[in-house]
C-alpha cells in the first residue's frame, strides 16, 4: 500500500482551461511558439488522459480563432470579459464539473489569466497555472503576473510537471504516450 495512490492531477477531479490562444493575438505575444508548443502538448495530454478541458476565445471577430491543434475536440466559448468567471456560458460549464483542481494556461498572463486565477482563488478553488504555457506581449508583465499569482496561493508549475503529475508512475498505462509528448 502506498501513502498516495492517486496522481497529483486526477483526471476525474481536474478541469483545464485554455485561455485565448488566438491567431491575431499570438502575433504580438512574447515567446509565442513556446506557448503554442506547450499548449498543444496540454491539449493532447487532456485527450489521452480524458481530463475535461474547455477553450475560451476573446472577441473572435477581432482576434480570430484559437490556433492550437485539435482544439475543436473540446468545448469552446467566446467571451468579451477578461476572466472566464465573468462569462455565463463558462461559469455554467464550470459549475457542472465535479473538479477539485482548476488548471489554467494561455494569454495574456497579466490580464485574462491573472483575473481568472484571482477569481478562482476568491472561490476557494485549488488553482494551478502552467507558467510555460502562458505569456503576454511584454515578458515583464508575464513574469509579474506569475509572481503575483504565486503570492496569492496559486500553484505555479511547468507543462512537464503537469503532464507527469497527471500520472501515478511510469507503470501508468498512459506513461508512454505522455512521455512521447515531451520528447
Keywords:
about 20% strand, alpha/beta, 8 helices, six-stranded parallel β-sheet, globular, about 40% helix, 6 strands, about 180 residues
Q: What do these coordinates show?
A:
This protein is α/β, with parallel strands linked by helices and 183 residues long. The protein contains 8 helices and 6 strands, in the order βααβαβαβαβαβαα. The chain has a 6-stranded parallel beta sheet with strand order 3-2-1-4-5-6. Strand 2 (53-58), helix 3 (60-63) and strand 3 (76-79) form a beta-alpha-beta unit. The chain is globular. The mean pLDDT is 95.
Secondary-structure blueprint of this entry?
Blueprint: E1 14-19, H1 23-26, H2 32-49, E2 53-58, H3 60-63, E3 76-79, H4 88-95, E4 101-107, H5 109-122, E5 126-135, H6 139-151, E6 155-157, H7 159-165, H8 175-182
Helix pairs in contact: 2-8, 5-6
What's this entry about, in short?
This protein is of the alpha/beta class.
Would you report the number of β strands? 6
Major beta sheet, specifics?
6 strands, parallel
Low-confidence stretches: none
Order of helices and strands: EHHEHEHEHEHEHH
Specify the overall morphology: globular
The SS-based structural class is alpha/beta
Q: How many whole angstroms does the radius of gyration measure? A: 15 Å
Number of helices: 8
